[in-house]
Amino acid sequence: MAIMLTRHHKILVQGMTGNQGQFHTRQMRAYGSNVVGGISPGKGGTEVEGVPVFNSVRDAVRETGADASIVFVPAAFAKDAAFEALENGIRLLVMIPEHVPVQDSIAIVTRAEDLGATVIGPNTFGIISPGEGTKMGIMPNHIYKPGPVGVVARSGTLSYEIAFALTNAGLGQTTVLGMGGDPVVGQTFISVLHHFKSDPDTRAVVMVGEIGGRAEEEASLYLKELGKPVVAYLAGRASPPGKRMGHAGAIIERGVGTLDSKEKALTAAGARVVTMPWEVADAVREALR
Amino acid sequence: MAIMLTRHHKILVQGMTGNQGQFHTRQMRAYGSNVVGGISPGKGGTEVEGVPVFNSVRDAVRETGADASIVFVPAAFAKDAAFEALENGIRLLVMIPEHVPVQDSIAIVTRAEDLGATVIGPNTFGIISPGEGTKMGIMPNHIYKPGPVGVVARSGTLSYEIAFALTNAGLGQTTVLGMGGDPVVGQTFISVLHHFKSDPDTRAVVMVGEIGGRAEEEASLYLKELGKPVVAYLAGRASPPGKRMGHAGAIIERGVGTLDSKEKALTAAGARVVTMPWEVADAVREALR
Amino acid sequence: MKLYEYLAKEVLGKAGVPIPPGRVVDTPAEAKEAVAAIGPAALKAQVLVGGRGKAGGIKFAATPEEAPAVASQILGMDLKGYTVERLYAEAKLDIERELYVSVTTDRGAKRPFVMASSEGGVEIEDVDDAAIVRRHVDPRVGVLPYFGKEMAYDLGLDGTLAREFGALVEKLYGVYQEYDAELVEINPLAVAGGHLVAADARLNVDDSALYRHKGLPRVDEGTPIELKVRDLGLAFVELDGDIAIMANGAGMAMATLDAVQHFGGRPKNFLDAGGGASVEPTAEALGVLVSMNPRVIFVNIFGGITRCDDVAKAILQVRETRGIPVPLVVRLVGTNEQAGVELLAKAGISAYSEMAVAAKEAVRLAEEGR
Amino acid sequence: MKLYEYLAKEVLGKAGVPIPPGRVVDTPAEAKEAVAAIGPAALKAQVLVGGRGKAGGIKFAATPEEAPAVASQILGMDLKGYTVERLYAEAKLDIERELYVSVTTDRGAKRPFVMASSEGGVEIEDVDDAAIVRRHVDPRVGVLPYFGKEMAYDLGLDGTLAREFGALVEKLYGVYQEYDAELVEINPLAVAGGHLVAADARLNVDDSALYRHKGLPRVDEGTPIELKVRDLGLAFVELDGDIAIMANGAGMAMATLDAVQHFGGRPKNFLDAGGGASVEPTAEALGVLVSMNPRVIFVNIFGGITRCDDVAKAILQVRETRGIPVPLVVRLVGTNEQAGVELLAKAGISAYSEMAVAAKEAVRLAEEGR
């Protein structure tokens, strides 16, 4: 089992003919993802990696019955791509682009809410469900394996580090999901934890958080209801306030977003907060005992 | 019985301290309307016509439990007033102002749709339910009486003419509703007919239409489902195309909105279309036989 | 309010819609300068009526030398009742194809509405339905490029044109919203040099929203007397009959015209004196009717908010101050009816209570006067 | 991007927010002219830090004569690490009361967020919670005057001030939307002469949205080296330690700082070389680290999209072209790990596979170098 993304999803790739789109279409198909079509205006009728290309999401949905889409267009076109997908019936949308204006992200997630659609990102590495043999994202294929651990992360590479450590420790994953590093993204820790709660195969959850915002503090309020062990690693212990640490969202501003506040909230709610990324696997093994 | 407005509605008057608001608050109360409060920013705590004045709809709803509101503010403030009402829980909203920009009306009716609220107007004389002894509007009190006829009109004075003729002919009304003379208004003939269908006391319906738009044509498609006799009078037989006849909505533009088209559609759908306003009462009497 | 083509083009150009180079021309000399500056050009009469081309309101000038003569042919000409006072000189396009696109409001759906056609250059009513693509805008979503692109594919456009059409519709919708437009229309939308360009443009602005567009020049459309009465804040339309009509409320005024016509009469105007007008504006409106030299004046009042005694006072005031030299038929019922009828009776004017009877009498008097 | 106060005021003024008369002053002579023009004025240092007043960055000039001397005191002064190069002379307000209002984005709620306080003039974090009114904006509705009016009543304002506050919040939200703002803040929002006026203003614009605000002047904030690395398109923050750090991905880079600190070391910087950077930009980034003269350089790579052999090539390229005169610790795992490790090994650089071990070694080498 898995959350949000299963092998049954029929996936489109918006911006498939670009470098990134083409590369990751190949990677996704290699992993087993059911990529049924790509979108590239003006290139309808051609093929990329053996996948048919359509001029519009409308055409693609009509022809393939696609219900999910991953977006690889430049940030300035992300809003248009997202709305094109949502208004044409796509209900699982993964937004890879970084530097999407926050106002655009607000518009996208608000509309998705109204339509009952799930948005992951923007500025995310995507979602992978190893047990289902499918992914929508840019994560490396070889570092995951099926197993009982759910992982939700704000950051990409750091989550790879941790997922790979879990895999090497024999701890496979149900689903690994990247929320994205932007201030406003489709998922919150709570919304993802809520999915993990309902997934019987997920027996423990790893949260990979970081400084900035109050997402971890808000999530702590949900841990009791989750009813599954949580191990958290939070990045940014050594980061000074007022400086943006790469991610638009990773900044301690005006006293909000400190690591201390997040760690306290999660610990008080019963999560095991580890100090260093290499401590995660052991903590998960203990939690699963 | 009646449609939309009953004696149980607790009514606010937005813009109550203005000339029009004050006059019609008096008229409404004289008719029996349950006016529980008025809104006039900065005048909260005072009284008008014995009705408490509040600074905001929020305060008024909190104090009185009001669920309906009638708006008497200048057109430029109508959108603000409408949203203030809708966002604070008002679910029956009568918009008296004329000259409300169409874009504002689109925003108001769209939001009302999302909230499940009923908007009557703008540029309407309102709604009166004689059998319930209540009204929200600017129509003269003395020309109505309870009875079996539902009346829905685009135009104010013309509907008075017809309602008074009905009353004088002994044909009272369940509810008389003014859709408003603007291009975009909250109600359509169809939405109102739909209410009349469900009201067992309404035994016949009078439609008072006019040139412009396609509201009558669209309504004709509903007459079969309505299942009650309909008498229609349509104004504008002598009006030339391309000229706006007072109402922003009453204009034959580019071939759309001709009286001929409306008359044909309604007649074909089984309505009795009379040529002159003074023929309405007789036609209704016949229909009720 | 309708904007002249050159004003509409200015607005659209600012919004990023591709328009040909052009400039306003008020004299033959300016036409020469314009053609010198922009090359071979169409000189287009700036009037608010359709079908200018067929009526001779658009002519081409290939060289600066021939421009003044061409301009002189159009300037001052009468075009469907309007005198041409201004031209717009616009670079001649090498048109490969003509399309159509507009944004307006669908009243029934209460939503913005985009209409496009693969056939442009004629009135959209005359285009075969199969060539037209229609689409409502959800105001919660607005218009993004994909919206117009989908329409473009439906029109059979592809590649660059589809992309340009997507961007165009987004911009037109922006203008529709920003300018409170009733209609934004590009017809024809030309394909020239492989790109879309707005060859002609209409932009009608919602009169009710003019207060928030103080930057737009005011374009007043109507006969001198229409403009005068509208300045009083009243709705007025001039017609070609001989019975001047005043009623309260737009519906009542329309019904009054209908009644007059029903009995064989010919209305001289539409005048809505307002649902709750008081003495002074009613008197002013009546004064205008008098000044129109009708055969008969017919006042039809159902007093709801309007008080019948106020109407009576207005009538008497006009009779005293300027006189009413033609037969007057008054129908007066409703609020304060008795007071109003008595006031008139004292002055020797008898009021009717039945609209039908009054209308018939007005028509009879007009026939008598002929 | 943070805008200087004077730029923020310009934007707000255009949007209809009441601001005091003011003008930019770059020299003592201009200060005299400014005070002559606008009367007694506050001369305010234009720097992007809070607490200017306490730090001596705001002084009053009552007359044109005393203005140059006052200006000279501030111009060129060091304010929390920033040199004051420009002043804003603003008419002195007779402040009756100080309030606070801001519009920002609530990440958790994914919605715009308006915050207001009946106590202004201090940082909002220092204000008692009971004095603060908070309200989310539903993006489907936006902000209309009633919204801010309701907040005003909650703040205890009434009458004119409540009405002005309603209009103000509507305008601030308009600026928030139109300028893609991260923060629009007026603090203090003064009551002067019975009316609201923006005494100070902050406007921070979303960096990701700058491409659609070409009209805004670019304000670059950061140390010279920060600005240089950001020009490469990389995320970089200068810190005060001695171990230069490069990692791929923002989270990995933060975690690397954490690891270094965990073992007692002091990071000299944050550098995210990107999730999928290729040879050239990685080499450029590394070159910057070298130029910072650290005691140790620590490169921590988990190759997902990033290929380990590309990173190895970048390291070797920098060593060949400009040299790496300090100890280098490389941790390299993931995609093409073997190829990368072998490339480095051939050049005599041994790579670690464990992040913990590598971090510890970097710290040890830095301690040795001290």
Gist of the model:
The complex is a heterotetramer, with 2 copies of chain A (289 residues) and 2 copies of chain C (370 residues). Chain A is of the alpha/beta class.
Structure description:
The complex is a heterotetramer, with 2 copies of chain A (289 residues) and 2 copies of chain C (370 residues). Chain A is 34% helix and 22% strand. Chain A has helices spanning 19-31, 57-64, 78-87, 102-115, 156-168, 189-198, 215-220, 223-226, 259-268, 280-288; strands at 11-14, 35-39, 47-48, 51-54, 68-71, 92-95, 118-120, 126-129, 134-137, 146-153, 173-178, 204-210, 230-235, 272-274. The model of chain A has no long low-confidence stretch (mean pLDDT 95). Chain C is an alpha+beta fold and 370 residues long. Chain C has 3 domains: 21-91, Dna Ligase, domain 1; 95-212, D-amino Acid Aminotransferase, Chain A, domain 1, CATH 3.30.470; 224-369, Succinyl-CoA synthetase domains (Rossmann fold, 3-Layer(aba) Sandwich). Helices cover 36% and strands 27% of the residues of chain C. Chain C is built from 11 helices and 19 strands. Chain C has helices at residues 5-14, 28-38, 67-74, 145-155, 159-178, 224-231, 250-262, 279-291, 308-321, 337-346, 355-369, and strands spanning 2-3, 22-25, 41-45, 58-61, 78-79, 82-83, 87-91, 95-106, 111-117, 132-136, 181-192, 195-198, 201-205, 235-238, 243-247, 269-272, 296-303, 328-334, 351-352. In chain C, helix 8 packs across helix 9 (308-321). At the A-D interface, helix 4 and helix 5 of A face helix 7 of D.
